[in-house]
Amino acid sequence: MKFRPIVIVAAAALAACSASSDNAPAADPKALVKLAKAQAGSVASTQAVYGAIELNADTQFTLSAPVEAVVSRIVAPVGSPVTRGQVVVELSPSPATRADLARISAEARSAQQAYERAQRLRADGLVSDAEVEGARAAAQSAQASRAALTTQTGGLALRAPGSGFVQSIASNPGNLVSAGTTIATINRNGDLRARFGIDPVLLPRLARGGGVRLAAVGGRPASVMPIRAVDPSVDPQTRLASIYVTVPAGMTGGAGQPLKGEVTLEQAGSAVTVPYAALLDDGGQPYVFVVSKGVATRKDVTVGASDGSTAAIAEGVAAGDDIVIEGGTALEDGMKVRTK
Question: Could you tell me whether strands 336-339 and 30-37 are parallel, antiparallel, or unpaired per DSSP bridges?
Answer without folding.
Answer: parallel
